[in-house]
Amino acid sequence: MSNAKQGNGQGNGHERKVTLTSAEGCPIADNQNSLTAGPRGPLLMQDVQLLEQMQAFNRERIPERVVHAKGSGAYGKLTITNDITKYSRAKIFEKVGKETECFLRFSTVAGERGAADAERDVRGFAIKFYTEEGNWDMVGNNTPVFFVRDPYKFAHFIHTQKRDPKTNVRDMNMQWDFWSLSPESLHQVTILFSDRGLPASYRHMHGFGSHTYSLINANGERVWCKFHFKSKQGIKTITDEESAATIAADRESHQRDLFESIEKGDYPKWRFCIQVMTEAQAKQFQFNPFDLTKVWPHAEFPLIEVGELELNRNPENYFAEVEQSSFSPSSLVPGIAASPDKMLQARLMSYADAHRYRVGTNFQQLPVNKPRCPVMHYQRDGFMSVGQGGASPNYEPNSYDDAPKEAPEYAEPGLPLGDVTADRFNHREGNDDYTQPGNLYRLFDEGQKQRLASAIAGALGQARREIQERQLCHFFRADPDYGKRVADALGIDVSEMMPESQTGATN
């Protein structure tokens, strides 16, 4: 029996025929033979299905991640087992028993896409929670700390983990030169070269948010927080000798273990916990609580259980769902926020920027990255946009009732930073936007004023009547004559539009 028939579902008890098509959905009659001028060729340019196949093949690869290039992923759920609403108003935590779908990507950090899973390395532990308030990305590692505390050093550190620019091989001189000149790396180096630098599988290691984050409750009260995921399978590691033997036999050992475990129903689980520190405690703490190279002592800040994370479904297509999955610490939901951690502050920008370069401007529209809640914003167009937003306005502020509006109830409390507070300050409050335009208008001679009013009316007259009336109010506030001239040019009787006392108002 031919493979072609098997592929069409024939000859094995099935009547269903699946017709091969082009990317546009057009049926393909022959996918074995090119269109040629006679049996010996040459090829014809009109063989569009061959051209499509070759052109698509040339574009199958996207740039690999600069860091965390080799990875494995799976879908699952977070089930809340303990009430922490006194710390956070995030809806993902709103009640015990609540389940939220998620996607988790494990990875090696330094290795390229062809790296072996069992190499000694830090492991990435990135989770995308599809909440009803948007996606929350917890982008962490299997270690609670990192090699550097200042983002200025991040790119330099990653360079030392990659290939020497001359020899094109990884070089211990590079790594240890950097580490020996960066004593803040010692904590992470100690973890990396301990037993935990060689986890037996992705299932047998912990995960950490590593950074300090904010949790904000319904009363607008903030605490600082660290996220922990404790493997319910227990910690299991291998030796250098076992690592070498594993790599020799199977470079995809962790990928295979994760996939096969889920396929047979042996779903890996982690206990999700937090550490909490109050703002008052942070001010008096013995070291900077936002330092990514240090942990918070568990004796002083014990783990508080939040829930259980379970992975229970494998992706159907690795490229679409794992390779194109994109995680960013900037993907935060109401009730979970950033902190003064300098490394986190830099990652808020760099991760999303990397995805826009690597995957595309609209990476959030891909199914694995797409929020499960409605998405309403004013971003438009760009590569691979599927027309999100439709015919609604692409600017704001606007006066359309059905356009997205800001929701002040989700505002975070200001963050005190010494003598100043980080917050969103109303730029119009206390500002006079009318005196200087009015002074300028009063400098014009009669002809200039009339031409100004005529030019404005020519453009403003094409807008809706309610927009014209709203703009006229601004002209009147700058100078009553300014407003009246434009109104007359528009053919609008301002005495019908507003009380006489308003037509003469000046600031």
Structural commentary:
There is one protein chain. The protein is globular and about 90 Å long. It has 2 domains: 71-365, Catalase core domain (Catalase HpII,  Chain A, domain 1, Beta Barrel), CATH 2.40.180.10; 435-503, no CATH class. 29% of the residues are buried. The strands form 2 sheets. Strands 1, 2, 3, 4, 5, 6, 7, 8, 9 and 10 form a 10-stranded antiparallel β-sheet that branches. It has a two-stranded antiparallel sheet with strand order 11-12. Strand 6 (213-216) and strand 7 form a beta hairpin. Residues 1-11 and 503-507 have low confidence and may be disordered. It has 507 residues and is of the alpha+beta class. 29% of the residues lie in helices and 16% in strands. It is built from 16 helices and 12 strands. It has helices spanning 3-7, 48-58, 154-161, 172-180, 186-192, 240-249, 253-263, 279-284, 318-323, 342-358, 435-443, 446-460, 465-478, 480-490, 494-497, 500-503; strands at 71-80, 99-108, 123-131, 134-141, 207-208, 213-216, 222-231, 269-278, 304-313, 336-337, 415-417, 420-422.
The total beta strand count reads: 12
CATH class of the largest domain: Mainly Beta
Estimated share of beta-strand residues? 15-25%
Low-pLDDT runs = 1-11, 503-507
Helicity level: 25-40%
Biggest pleated sheet: 10 strands, antiparallel
Q: Which oligomeric form is depicted? A: single chain
